[in-house]
Amino acid sequence: MNIILISSLLETLKISVWPPGSNIYLGECVLLRCSVESSLGSAWSYRWFKHQSASTPNPRHRVSGDSYSITAVTGEDAGRYRCQAKRWESNTSSVELLSQPAVLSVSELPPPSLLTLTPSSRQLYRGERFTVRCPSGWMLRQWSDEQRAVRKSGGVLVTDRCSPLGGAVAADKLDACTFTAIGGSSGLYWCEGLEGPEGRSNAVNLTVSNGTIILKTPASPVFEGDKVVLYCQYWTGNHSRTTFFKNGAEVDTYSSSSSDGVINMTIENVTRRDEGFYKCASRDGKMESPESWLSVRPDAGSWKWIIVSCGIIPLVLIPLTVWLLRHHRCWPFSKENLPAAELPATKQDVTEVQWDLSWMEMSHLLDRQLYPVT
User: Fold this and answer.
1) What is the model's pTM?
2) Distance between alpha carbon 355 and the CA centroid of its chain, in Å?
């Protein structure tokens, strides 16, 4: 019989969310980490729950020990997340901890695109150079799972320059940091302003590979209607035939005589149906890249049209309304404000006499009805 013990006051369990802040944005990668604060060095196993029930399998949701990552957040990812930690004290007794919920609120508005990654790719080779740029005066932050054990603040590095992250200030761009990709370069990157996490930029997830083949997809979401190019890159050799896959299913096979080991797959006029996990492999299947997510957002032009329309419609409606009111004499215009062309062609004095006579005749008729002649 297993005996489950209640946690002691010396052991607490909490969830941290990266990047931090009250909102996460559509298309972002978000990481939840479950950590046990304890003086004991025991090994723990973890389970994750959403809305009090076990998390259902989802290809965008990945669980790795105490970490729960969501690739390309959608509206359905909003909710309350909990983690459970368990360790065995003996063959018959164990200790279980349950965290307080971490609430994820998904913002329908796009995040401020203040961070740029060059080259714009979710995957890079070890030793490859890349540049991260933040607005002037903002701080660059990174969360790396590989080096969190030796870092403070749960694996987060922060800098207003570049040296603490292992890079150097770009010579031509003072607000850009240039790095050489190593294992610790993998992780989330974002920029923070003076107001802290609540004013952060978009977050970009980067993976550094030691393999022989990678697939480079855009680091940030693309828009419907865009032209998207996926780059399958080999570390060495000239591989003339490469197969691309989407969500595990073969998409197409491409042939190329490229000398740089790069074979491209182009998606013209991308739509939401093209969103998913992509990978590439050599034709013989001996080399296969890690999967990389392609995130597609609704057409940016529709939002621009709505904004422009909100400015144009009042400019059209206001003059039209004024014209209609004046045309149907619903506006208190005085005779002095009326244009001369609309006045009768008769002389002014004759018009006034005719106007006075009509009122005199009406008054005379009323007098005869009120005071009939006897």
Assistant:
1) 0.71
2) 71
